[in-house]
Amino acid sequence: MYGVVGIALASAGTVVAQVDLNKTAKLRTPAALTEEAPGDYKVNFDTSRGTFVVQVHRDWAPLAADRFYNLVKNGFYDDVRFFRVVPNFMVQFGMHGNPAITRAWSTTSLKDEPTKQTNKRGYITFARTGAPNSRGTQVFINYKDNGFLDKQGFAPFGEVIQGLDIVEKINSMYGEKPDQGQITSTGNAYLNKEFPKLDFIKAATIEK
Fold first, then answer.
1. What is the pLDDT of residues 109-142, one digit of tens each?
2. Architecture of 4-206 per CATH?
């Protein structure tokens, strides 16, 4: 039987659960998440390795900035793993832990944009395949100057302005071993079982 404290805790838990359900529902309907981002905004990443901050510049790549803003604002990157970490190259993340949400975003590719900035160390860019207009939800942060990516359509939209040392300490022991097909089909269940020491994002939030 609940006491006063028990009732309060239960109510708080119900509110948190409802917030989580609301976020999940929104993330299942990408077509509704099209808010235009501010000209510049900051994103705080609280991770298993520490915290870092990304400054996004909308004029660098407006479509990318808007997509990232909506994903962060609606909790897409919360509890997401850094599944591809290549020392002296880059760290990649953005495959959701819930396969249903991954499926919902699988057909929402962004149109290509001009590459206005070079892929410098600490710059963040949406990942893409070799096909046109193939950017989705995955992004990467450059560990070094990777200018050779510029002509391949990788358009940076922001930069790490605080905590780059944290980004560079993200666990790289698994390299490129995690299979993206398996992540797509089973999400964090696969990653937690096969690659339990992957670092991850606890929460990504827009700085007020």
1. 999 999 999 999 999 999 999 999 999 999 999 9
2. Beta Barrel (2.40)
Please state whether the predicted TM-score (pTM) of the whole model is above 0.85. yes
How far is Cα 24 from Cα 21, in angstroms, rounded to an integer?
A: 5
Domain ranges of the chain: 4-206
Q: How far apart are CA 120 and CA 182, in angstroms?
A: 31
In the block, residue with structure tokens 């020491």? 197
Sheet of 51-57, strands arranged across: 84-86, 90-93, 139-142, 123-126, 156-162, 51-57, 40-47, 201-206
207 close to 53: Cβ distance less than 8 angstroms: yes
Half-sphere exposure (Cβ direction) of 44: Cα atoms closer than 13 Å: 7
pLDDT of residue 21: 66
3-state helix, strand, coil in the chain (%, to 5): 35, 25, 45
What would the two tokens of residue 87 be?
């020392």
Q: In 1-83, at which residue ranges do the beta strands (DSSP E only) sit? A: 40-47, 51-57
Long-range contacts of 174-177 (CB under 8 A, 24+ apart): 174/85, 174/198, 175/84, 175/85, 175/86, 176/84, 176/86
Q: How far apart are CA 103 and CA 158, in angstroms?
A: 26
169: how many CB neighbours lie within 10 A of its CB? 13
